[in-house]
Write a structure and sequence with these properties.
CATH architecture: 3-Layer(aba) Sandwich
Structural class: alpha/beta
Number of domains: 1
Largest sheet: 7 strands, mixed
Helix content: 25-40%
CATH class: Alpha Beta
Strand order of the largest sheet: 3-2-1-4-5-7-6
Strand content: 15-25%
Distance between the termini: 36 Å
Length: about 190
Amino acid sequence: MGIIIALESILDPLLLERVFPAVRPVELELGAGDGGFLVEWAALRPEHNFIGVERLLGRLRKIERRAVRRGLVNVRVVRLEASYFVKYLVPVRSVGALHVYFPDPWPKRKHWRHRLVNEQFPALAERVLIPGGSVYLRTDHEEYFAQMNRVFAAHGGFVPQETPAILAAVPTDFERGFRAAGVEVFRAAFAVV
């Protein structure tokens, strides 16, 4: 099987045991971009399987090239809208971690409804995460960061936690650019209660 998942259905949950050659804990990156974080994190954690979700085919192909070059068998990618994937295709209580890094902040107030991390997102995350599973968030947008914290605090199914140092040390492609430009990066993490 290739790294890019060919979905048999966009209505039925994905059978994770068919996606990877070995059954291992699964982590998702929603909005994987060019895969800098996904590939590096997967290389550091060969005992886990990783799925990157991205809408742009060119980015999926770049992730595929990076993963193949590194010889990673624990990486897969899917071309789909992230919120749809989590809501309809990820099996209940099947994921150990959700990584959401630098999602589009939709800065204009009239566009906030398009944000991935919105009032509905914590319930979707709670549905797919295993007990004790975590959501890891990063953004350069201070107002969006405040909203992320508000929606998770209001949900009640999560508690704040520290981002592990080993995870915080693995930057995304966007993050490298932001750091080089001196832009502040905000991080949050929440664990299912």
